[in-house]
Protein 1
Amino acid sequence: QVHVVESGGGLVQAGGSLRLSCAASGGTDVIYSMGWFRQAPGKGREFVAAISWSGGDIYYEDSVKGRFTISRENAKNTVSLQMNILKPEDTAVYYCTVPSPYGPTLTSTNVRSLALWDYWGQGTQVTVSS
């Protein structure tokens, strides 16, 4: 069982920045690929960004490209999501997620599918005021 915990989030004005962090634990000598999804009120959960276990493959949803940056940190199973130039439409609960380490390699297609991701954090609220 993999335990996923997010931190960060909060309230910010449009144009501002926030940083989310996520830590995954529970595996032995396993480095996980990790991702972020978000869910706005009344909408489905949508893909935001993902990074492979090596850090060599990174994917973004089109609307956040150039504004958000996902990165792995030295703790290996810790990732951050730096969010700049935030917009009111970025308001959502943000979820960190981890796929099974025995699942398929990340691709630009499968990262967008909820079916890929097996373990989820509790979510953290990001609110951007206009």
Protein 2
Amino acid sequence: VQLQASGGGLVQAGGSLRLSCAASGRTFGSNVMGWFRQAPGQEREFVAAISWSGGTTYYADSVKGRFTISRDSAKNTVYLQMNSLKPEDTAVYYCAADKNPRRTYVAGQYYSRGLYDYWGKGTLVTVSS
């Protein structure tokens, strides 16, 4: 099983990037998917998650209104559209997947790294001021 994140790069503050996370080895079309990020010297933190059906999304307060998570189950891919980027968004972004299909959780669980069983290698996003 592999999760491959892509789409990172260098962008000026106020700009946009779209990250993609393509899964291979098994289908995650009906699994909770999430994005986390880790800045240098800091712990990995939650960014966004999407329910197995795609009907509910969750965001960290720091990105709410600027980032959008979505999924294309047919392509086994999840996306993170990032707008109005700020220098503090600079980090390595990781996608993650829950191994259990069609599972619904208490809202707070979606924010926890412990929910996710599979992790990608990450893609670097650098936002310059």
